[in-house]
Amino acid sequence: MIKRFLVISAAVALLGACGGQDVHTPAPIGNLVRPGAAPWLTVAGGTGKLEVRGLDHKVILEPSPDLSAAVQSQLGEQLQADYFQDLVVTCTSLTTTMHVDEDKAPGSVAMNLGLHCAVWSRGLDTNHDYKAEVSTAVASGAGDEAYAQALPKLLADGSGDIAGQLRGDLHKLTHSAH
User: What contacts 125, CB < 8 A, 6 or more positions away?
Assistant: First the structure.
């Protein structure tokens, strides 16, 4: 019994030593943010850090500025042509996850992006959850920084997907108002 306990303790100690290192990587995403892109659209929520899951060690991206500012700017820019008078779009509950599937696609990283948006215009309103899953290749040999370098493309692509979904709802809203 004692021998078994010692073997288990040694295994736990070894595992703890291997996976115990957290790699924090800055992830600049400022090039996605355009001030004043669409004052009628806001995005709130999200976390200050983003873990890349599926790796044999922990990689935590630290986006700057925050994710909600980047998504808000991207959505506003892509939906600017769809704006109509008295339109207000408020998105909350921003969720983002990044993951790598070492078995199926070791050279790429995927992101799930989600938002809950309320759209108001001329007394009509609608609420929906929007979700997007996008992926991109990561530079081989770039180490953990490759995930930080992939983040802007993932955010732009995911925001583009959600903008398309939101655009459909905006068009429905404009047609029901007439």
Answer: 118, 119
> Is residue 60's pLDDT more than 90?
yes
Name the more confident of 122 and 156.
Answer: 156
Distance in angstroms (rounded) separating the CA atoms of residues 155 and 70: 8
Q: Which amino acid is at 10?
A: A
DSSP state of 30: G
- Reading the block at residue 90, the tokens are 């408020």
Phi/psi for 135 (5° steps) reads: -145, 160
- The b/e string for 7-24 (b: 16+ C-beta within 10 A; e otherwise) is eeeeeeeeeeeeeeeeee
Amino acid at position 178, single letter = H
Sign of CA dihedral 47, 137, 152, 92: negative
pLDDT at 156: 97
Enumerate domains of the chain plus CATH numbers. 22-177 (3.30.160)
User: Using CA atoms, how far apart are residues 57 and 72, in angstroms rounded to an integer?
Assistant: 31
Q: Which has more pLDDT, 155 or 22? A: 155
For residue 16 the two structure tokens come to: 């703890």
